[in-house]
Amino acid sequence: MKSIAEEIGELRALPISELVTRYEAAFGRAPRVRHREFLWKRVAWKLQEQRLGGLSTVAKERLDRLIAEIDIPLDECTRSATGRLRSPPKASTTATIVRTWRGTEYRATPVPGGYDVNGVLHRSLSAAAQAITGTKWNGRLFFGLTKPRKAQ
């Protein structure tokens, strides 16, 4: 029988399709993401849990009590990493945004579910900018709603 360390080492080398299969076998459901790091870490954790045992009953009960005590305000604005409330977006949600990229004019119109850009629905301005340019962009920066930061 292989050691846990050997099996975890083998997991790191598996293709994503095999990691997905192992995840589904271990957790009984499809993974929410197909990212190699996410998959192999979760499968490795489950392997260790099965071999070495999971949390004790006392620890599980304590966690359940702590989780029950958490009060998350659902109506409050999302907080940033600093804990400060974020301000609402400054751009109008009804204005059509126009951007010319490599000689082609792109018109982004807000619609329910995202933005209609020249007849194609995108979930966000960033998704639209990526489809237009082929690279990752901050959508607000690409469409000129935000100025780029100066290097510090």
If you had to describe this structure to a student in words, what would you say it looks like?
With 152 residues, this protein is of the alpha+beta class. The model has no long low-confidence stretch (mean pLDDT 83). It contains six helices and four strands, in the order ααααββββαα. A hairpin with a 2-residue loop joins strand 1 (97-101) and strand 2 (104-111). It has helices at 4-13, 16-27, 36-52, 57-69, 125-133, 139-142, and strands at 97-101, 104-111, 114-117, 120-122. Helix 1 (4-13) packs antiparallel against helix 3 and helix 2 packs across helix 3. The chain has a four-stranded antiparallel beta sheet, covered by helices on one side. The longest helix is centred in the N-terminal third of the chain and has 17 residues, at 36-52. Among the domains are: 4-54; 97-142, no CATH class.
Helix/strand-derived category reads alpha+beta
Largest sheet entry: 4 strands, antiparallel
User: Based on DSSP secondary structure assignment, what is the total number of beta strands?
Assistant: 4
Structural Rg: 23 Å
Strands ordered across the widest β-sheet: 1-2-3-4
Mean pLDDT over the full residue set? 83
- What is the H/E string? HHHHEEEEHH
| Overall 3D form | elongated
N→C terminal distance? 55 Å
Unreliable runs: none
What is shown here, in short?
With 152 residues, this protein is an alpha+beta fold.
Quickly list its features.
single chain, 152 residues, alpha+beta, 4-stranded antiparallel beta sheet, 6 helices, 13% strand, elongated
